[in-house]
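Now produce a polypeptide, keeping tokens residue-aligned:
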Amino acid sequence: MQQDKTLPLLDDPGAVEAACFAAINQSCCGKGGIPYRDLDKARLAYKTRDVDATRQVKRAGEAHQHTHQQKAYDELSCSHTESHKKTSSDYLKAIVFGGLDGIVTIFAIVAGCVGANLHPSKVVIIGIGNLLADAISMGFGEFVSSAAEEDFVKSEREREEWEIENCPNEEKQEMVEIYRDRYGFTDEDADCLVNITFKYREFFVQHMMVEELGLMANEGPSPIRRGAVMFASFSIFGLLPLAGFVAWLTLSGMKTDGHLAFAMACVISGIALFILGFFKGRFVNQSPLKSGLLMIINGTCAGTVAYAVGAALEDVVAVTV
């Protein structure tokens, strides 16, 4: 079960910048709402290292007249509203969302098996098998997506560096237009600021990445570490429903049909979901209590559906087989 990554992406300030500015300028700025030039043509020109084509793209962008001149800064307030997340926050994100996925997924599997009246030993075997398989899938998926994001940012940075080296005047003009149209600078002030910042190449490149493309260099954990944390979180928290199930079976000496053991799994899963949901709420600046309760509702719905489907299919199979 792959975790929806929409929310984590919006935690990145660069992604928020791009999303907000794209929404505002979609109708008049071309694909993705990125202003001043056609990025597809710019990337093609860079791929062939065609300086003349690059300059033509930039000049075409300069000739483009926006009907909207100055947007109040508060219209873009969805960007740059928080400081950058630290590495610990990146780990916390993977732990919380991986853990939530693990609990809900394995709890639903246990519920479906119990609903189908499978023998408790089979429930444990199926649960452990799915736990390991899903944990590997989640960890690898996190690694692949993080690596792809890093590669994209790296390739865009290399293109910007090449353009600055080969088309410095055009790059300066792009920043002048951004300062003027987005932040309300006068042409004189924008020129002055650009000429100063251009002296510091590293700063200028990073600044252009943020302002023009909405991209920021990844300063968090490596893709391998993110994948490992996701795998570990899914495995550890996903084990909790099974742990409650097995604990009751052990205490009862296997003298149960599995439903009482499932009740114990429900209690442990509910507590774990509330705790993780509570921290999820704090992480995304929502009500922790509300977030915790929503996670319990999420787990309850998933477990109920799985149990009902298991029970229904058990009756169907019993009749047809």
User: Anything to note?
Assistant: The chain has two domains: 10-63+76-84+146-213, 87-144+225-316.
